[in-house]
Amino acid sequence: MSILEGKGVTKYFGGLAAVSNVDFSVEKGEAFGLIGPNGAGKTTLFNLISAAYPVKSGIIRFKDKDITGLKPYKICRMGVARTFQIVKIFPDLPVFSNVLLGLHFGHSSGMSSAEKASLALEYLDFVGLTQVKMAPAKDLTLANQKRLEVARALATGPELLLLDEIMAGLNPTEVSQAMELVNRIREKGITIIMIEHVMKAIMNICQRIMVLHHGEKIAEGSPREIANSEKVIKVYLGEKAHATC
After folding, report:
1. CA end-to-end span of the chain
2. Nearest of 226, 225, 227 to residue 245 by alpha carbon
3. 3-state secondary structure 1-35
4. Among 6, 51, 63, 219, which is disulfide-ready with 72 (CB 3.0 to 4.6 Å)?
5. pLDDT tens for residues 85-136?
6. Which of 13, 1, 97 is nearest to 47 (CA)?
7. What is the pLDDT of residues 18-65, one digit of tens each?
8. What are the Cα distances from residue 212, in Å, to 10, 19, 64, 119?
9. For 175-183, what is the mean pLDDT?
10. CA gap 65, 141 in Å, rounded
């Protein structure tokens, strides 16, 4: 069953097509990878799904509802959350308050302040940040800032989570920990779309992968199919990556 679907999705910046006539479909409960060279249109597609940018043409549907043109907060409250390629935490607020803001934003009513505070602590525990809950967010390591952003996104109560390079800049141990976190999120029944350049993560976590190049979809398939696609090898993976995937 499809939870997210795009038909002919297009976005121009001036005369440049950042995303050009892209079709996609993400199944409920799966981890769906989005890869491609820098500038391929990956984050732009996330911005279109989350309504940070308006779609030039095409339709995006979430749970069979047309969300094209809706405001970002409405899409979030429908069940779509995201992280950012460059973390966008509230640096001077405590870690706990960052997550609490996610709860207030994603849940407009029906929860008391005490219930929200308790739930915020649960999300912090889930991502492993309980011990630093009262520290200013700016004092966290990069890996923990990324975990905080994941916790804040989860606090909005998503059914679909868009993860934009949460492993960028991390060391091998932190990458392994991030992979474990993504798998635990999926085990909670949350559908994931992830942009990532760490091929170990993409190939081991995702059931399907879509490849963008110059804003166009050039391939889609299982990790094995993508790893063995001559077109993808040529424009992105390279022969060495092909041999090791």
Report:
1. 28
2. 227
3. CEEEEEEEEEEEECCEEEEEEEEEEEECCCEEEEE
4. 51
5. 999 999 999 999 999 999 988 765 678 889 899 999 999 999 999 999 999 9
6. 13
7. 999 999 999 999 999 999 999 999 999 999 999 999 999 999 999 999
8. 13, 9, 24, 37
9. 97
10. 39
